[in-house]
Amino acid sequence: MEKVVLLYSGGLDTSIMISWLKENYHCEVIAVCADLGQKEELSGLEEKALKTGASKLYIEKLTEEFITDYIFPTIKAGAVYEGTYLLGTSFARPLIAKRAVEISHKEGATAVAHGATGKGNDQVRFELSIMALDPSLRIISPWKDPLWTLNSREACIAFAEQRGIPISQSKKRIYSEDRNIWHISHEGGVLESPWNEPPDDVYTLSSTIEKAPDIPEYVEIAFEKGIPASVNGKNLGPVELLEKLNAIGAKHAVGHVDMVENRLVGIKSRGVYETPGGALLYFAHRELERLVLDRDTSHFKEMVAIKYAELVYDGRWFSSLRTALDAFVDATQRNVTGKVKLKLYKGNIVTAGSKADKSLYLEDLASFTNTSLYDQKDATGFIKLFGLPMKVAGLINRTTGK
Q1: Which has the closest alpha carbon to 121: 257, 278, 319, 310?
Q2: pTM of the shown model
Q3: Cα(289)–Cα(298) distance, integer angstroms
Q4: Which is the catalytic residue, given 19, 93, 207, 270?
Q5: Per-residue pLDDT tens over the stretch 264-300
C-alpha cells in the first residue's frame, strides 16, 4: 500500500482529507502537523487524526526554527507584501513542506498531500517547496483532483458530518483561519465582501480598538545586528520574546490588518490579519535602521524588501534569488544594534525614542548652526551643479516656447 504524507492542521479541509485519501487512493495516510506556536489548536489533535483514519500523526515542534530561520530573516529584509501584509502564512509554508519531505524520506512515502485550494496561494507555496527539496515526490492536491467533488466549505462540512469527523467550523462561523505564533488570518464568510466591516468576533488573538486600554503603554525593544534581543531591558529567547510582544500588542489592538490583496493566481482576495508582536518588531526595526543606514543603502534596501516580499509570498523561499538577497540584507544589518521605545495606544504605534551604537545621526550636524563638518555656504555650489540639468532643460524650453 502506498504511503502518503498529509500536511495536517486539524482544520476543516485536512480533517476530511484523511478519509477522502483513503477512500479514493486506497493508501496509508501519515499525518504531519507543524507546531508553529498555535497552542490550543493542537489539543486533542493526535486522537482526532487517528480516529479519522491516519496510521500515525507527527506533531513537529518547529516554533523556534520558524522564528529564527524564517521570521527573523524576513524582518531584517523589511519585507512586507503590498505594503501591509506581514507574511504570516507565507513563510510558514516552506518550513512545513520541508519537514514533510524529511518525514516522507523517513517513512518511505512516495507522495505528499496538502489541503490548499486551487484558488489560493498556499498550493503554490507547498508545491514549489516540495519540488525544490525532492522533485521525485508525487504531490496530491485534492482540491484540484478530478475525483474531488466537495467544491464549497458547506460541502466539506456536510462530508465531515456524514462520516462523524469532528470539526471546529460551522455554518455560522465559517471563516478559513490559519494561526501560528506570528499571526492569525481570517478569510471567507462575511469577510468575502470588502464592504462588510469585520465583526468583533473575528478577532480571536487581540482586543478590538474599542476594548483596548484608555491609557497608553510604552515598550522598549532592543536589536543586535537586526535580530530582536530583548524587551523592556530583559534578554529573551526567540519564542519568549515574540510571546511577550504578542501579549503587549494584542492588549492594545496593535497589528490589525484588513486588506484586499493580489493573490499570485490572479485573484483579488480579502483577508483580516492579527499580527500584534510582529507589527511591533517591524516598526521598531525600521526605526532603528533610520539611524544607522546611509541614504543610498536605505533606499536600495526598500526596493530589495519589495522583491523579497514577493518571493516569500509567491512560495519561492528556496529560490537562489532569496538566498542571494539574504547576503545583501545581512550586510546591511551589521550596525543595526540598538533600542527603540514605542508608545502603544488604541491600535496605534508611535515612536517614543531610538538610539543605536553606531548611529549616523549627529545632533550638532543636524542642528541649524554651522559645524566643522558642514558649512551652509557650501550648499550654494552643490545646488548649482545638482540642478544644472534641470536649468539647461528650462533654458531650452523657454527658447523653444514649450
Answers
A1: 310
A2: 0.94
A3: 8
A4: 93
A5: 999 999 999 999 999 999 999 999 999 999 999 999 9
Rounded distance between C-alpha atoms, residue 222 and residue 234, angstroms: 9
Condensed to tens digits (0 to 9), the pLDDT of residues 50-78 reads: 999 999 999 999 999 999 999 999 999 99
Contacts with 199 (C-beta within 8 Å, 6 or more apart), sequence order:
190
Q: Does the annotation count 176 as an active-site position?
A: yes
Q: Which of 19, 90, 104, 122 is catalytic?
A: 122
Grid coordinates belonging to 198 = 469585520
Active-site residue, 122 included = yes
> How many angstroms separate the Cα of 18 from the Cα of each of 22, 27, 42, 115?
6, 10, 17, 10
pLDDT tens-digit profile of 101-138?
999 999 999 999 999 999 999 999 999 999 999 999 99
Nearest to 63 by CA among 233, 205, 246, 203: 246
The span from the CA of 394 to the CA of 392, in Å, is 5
Structural domains present in the chain: 3-62+89-173 (3.40.50.620), 179-356 (3.90.1260.10), 365-400 (no CATH)
93 carries an active-site annotation? yes
Find cell 512586507 and name the residue. 80
